[in-house]
């Protein structure tokens, strides 16, 4: 049966993706090879368990695929152990927390309004905020983390786990300092590199591996793979607890998930293969160059820009005008998202800024010149609201 209704909608979405300028920092365009694996017959197969230890028959080829994803991922991410089964970033972080914390233990992450993620202990409404006691750190007026203040907080609160990772932070993260601080209180340190994974793999953001116990990451943002996530265990992690890899695997399955999505894992193997090329390194370097060019152009046009040292920036557009700016930009073919600015006093539904990222259009081949011109256009639209 041909489902024309869905086909038509997919076609329209495809045109939307092709025709607009995409600047949501967490979005990208996966390759045809990645999408081929995602749409393959692997979606038909159940494979509960891990390679060589499955609960169902018929996993001869699936095992080979998952092992390839693990080996390629370990190589490009530089970790000792890698679980490639998390369905997405949120379940990956939940699995890590489930593996290493008891209900009521203390967890510490960056505030959502400061560019942190919901799964890093956002109070009351999230799994990590409901089941654990959450303390959160903030950024300063300039949008940066003050590591001395963070250290004071950690020494006073002594959390059992610290989440070092961000969704809207335009600066390089000092994983070394995070590591020194976590070690002072014996806390587990988790680097959630979801946003910057492509930059880390491409060598344009320092790797956290030497300083943290665990690395989590989504695979669909700057990494440019399928939607999904991974959990890596570092040498430092295994030194802290030789059973760490087993604990993580058990938390993913059977702790939190059932059958892994092997089509997604095959696509991830393809993406990791693509990461291991000079072309990917060039792409990662270009993302950062493009972000700098865009930030500079916006500044020249009089806008206040937080950042950038990575793939994204936060732009102040006026009190409560973030949503209006995002809507107006979309009307002009430019897709961004409304975002809080550091210490925003406006509500999160009507924040005072927008978040802009360069990975997707870098994949499309854009360079500094295009981003400079885009900056002029964006500034003109923002000034008109
Ligand atoms: C830092 C970080 N961690 C985790 C996630 C969650 O990923 P997902 O949306 O795949 O659950 C995100 C998504 O934006 C993120 O930015």
Biggest β-sheet strands, sense, barrel: 7 strands, mixed
Number of strands: 15
Distance between the termini: 47 Å
Total helices: the number is 15
What is the CATH first-level class name of the largest domain?
Alpha Beta
- What would CATH call the homologous superfamily of the largest domain? Type I PLP-dependent aspartate aminotransferase-like (Major domain)
Q: SSE order in H/E notation?
A: HEHEEHEHEHEHEHEHEEHHHHEEHEEEHH
Q: Show unreliable segments.
A: none
Q: Which molecules are bound in this entry? A: pyridoxal-5'-phosphate
Total number of domains: 2
Q: What Rg, in angstroms, do the CA atoms define?
A: 21 Å
- Just name the CATH architecture of the largest domain: 3-Layer(aba) Sandwich
Order of the strands making up the biggest sheet = 4-10-9-8-7-5-6
**Based on helices, strands and strand pairing, what is the structural class?**
alpha/beta
Secondary structure: helix percent: 40-55%
């Amino acid at each position: 049966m041909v489902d024309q209704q869905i086909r038509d909608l997919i076609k329209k979405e495809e045109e939307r993706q092709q025709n607009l300028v995409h600047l949501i920092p967490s979005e990208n365009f996966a390759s045809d090879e990645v999408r081929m694996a995602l749409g393959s017959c692997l979606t038909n197969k159940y494979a509960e368990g891990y390679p060589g230890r499955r609960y169902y028959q018929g996993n001869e080829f699936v095992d080979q695929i998952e092992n390839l994803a693990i080996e390629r991922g370990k190589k490009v991410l530089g970790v000792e152990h890698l679980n490639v089964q998390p369905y997405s970033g949120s379940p990956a972080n939940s699995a890590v927390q489930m593996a290493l914390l008891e209900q009521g233990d203390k967890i510490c992450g960056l505030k959502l309004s400061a560019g942190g993620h919901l799964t890093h202990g956002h109070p009351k409404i999230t799994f990590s905020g409901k089941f654990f006691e959450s303390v959160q750190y903030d950024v300063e007026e300039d949008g940066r983390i003050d590591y001395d203040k963070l250290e004071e907080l950690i020494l006073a609160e002594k959390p059992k786990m610290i989440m070092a990772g961000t969704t809207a932070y335009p600066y390089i993260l000092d994983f070394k300092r995070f590591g020194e601080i976590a070690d002072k209180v014996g806390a587990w340190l988790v680097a959630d590199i979801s946003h910057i994974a492509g930059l880390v793999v491409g060598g344009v953001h320092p790797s956290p591996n030497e300083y943290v116990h665990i690395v989590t990451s989504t695979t669909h943002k700057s990494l440019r793979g399928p939607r999904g996530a991974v959990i890596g265990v570092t040498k430092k992690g295994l030194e802290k607890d030789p059973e760490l890899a087993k604990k993580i695997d058990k938390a993913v399955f059977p702790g939190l998930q059932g059958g892994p999505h092997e089509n997604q894992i095959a696509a991830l193997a393809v993406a990791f293969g693509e990461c291991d090329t000079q072309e990917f390194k060039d792409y990662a370097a270009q993302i950062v160059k493009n972000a700098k060019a865009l930030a500079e152009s916006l500044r020249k046009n009089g806008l206040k820009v937080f950042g950038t040292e990575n793939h994204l920036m936060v732009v102040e557009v006026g009190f409560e005008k973030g949503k209006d700016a995002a809507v107006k930009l979309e009307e002009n073919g430019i897709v961004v998202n409304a975002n809080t600015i550091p210490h925003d006093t406006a509500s999160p539904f009507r924040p005072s800024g927008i978040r802009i990222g360069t990975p997707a259009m870098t994949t499309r081949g854009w360079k500094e010149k295009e981003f400079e011109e885009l900056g002029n256009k964006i500034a003109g639209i923002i000034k008109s609201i």
